[in-house]
Fold:
Amino acid sequence: MQETPHAAGEHRQELVKFFEMSIDMLCIADMNGWFKQLNAAWQATLGFTTGELCAVPYVEFVHPDDRDATLAEAARLKVGMDTISFENRYRCKDGSYKWLLWQAHADFQTNLIYAIARDITERKRAEDLLKATATELMRSNDELSQFAYVASHDLQEPLRMVASFLQLLEKRYERVLDEDGKKFIHFAVDGAKRMQALIQDLLSLSRVQTRARPLAPLDCAKVFRDVCENLQLVIAESNATITCDSLPEIVADNVQIAQLFQNLMDNALKFRGVEPVRIHISAVRRAGEWEFSVSDNGMGIEPQFFDRIFGIFQRLQTREELPGTGIGLAVCKKIVERHGGRIWIESEPGRGSTFFFTIPDKKPDGLG
Structure:
């Protein structure tokens, strides 16, 4: 059905109305680089009138650093290649520049280019701010990690010296020290040793990122055997039974995964109940990841403490009740997150706990 002249006129008026009302910057240009028609959004964005924008080639408004790329994009249009997401900077009437994101298509029947530009200046500023913040955060983290590493080494030696001299003092003057004197020396030595343990654990926490190794294929069954060997004395003292299902090969940092297993197993041995300790490790493959679990029959914890236990220095028992610095599970969380996984706990007081963690199922050729 052929459109009547009246209907065609109305249709054109509707298109013109949409053209003018658009908040995006719509334009028509010729193949020689001159604007032919612009909507009101151009003046609202740049400040130039339509007459001023059409009076010179449009490249005159482009930032000098972006002109070569803009001319190259125009040349692509002339050979039939559409512009999808091209960015450049356009000069405003007040001398400032705004970032524009372009889409364009060349019509070779009319020899005209139809284009849409969107002002993305605020987005670019946000991206620049985010990059600057990330760079500053990385620098700050590097400095903090370096400080933690240096401080820990500098603090270790005087603490060792304090503990050694106190023990020497106790040994040499044992006969003249009364019970209070011996008790005071014991407290001081114990405090120095706890400080050393705290420094070592803080160093372990900082090393999750600073001493990270490349991810590589890893046999978790071998990791389990090695960790059991490392903990054999504690396992024997606790009369513990350690079992595991078939464990997979994953792509991971072998040292950190061993530390993860060891921390979780040591946690189960430490927070045991009245029954002989039983620990079971298993793994199941779910969508795109391996889900590991470390279950025990220990003390268990209340649900309101589930999130708290993964925080640094978080303890649910006093130091007198159970030893430790409260950093072990924080290290576990940091290791799991470094591998792109997550960690959580399910537990019931008096009935034991199960720690779950996931590791993405990566292939060796996709190592990151």
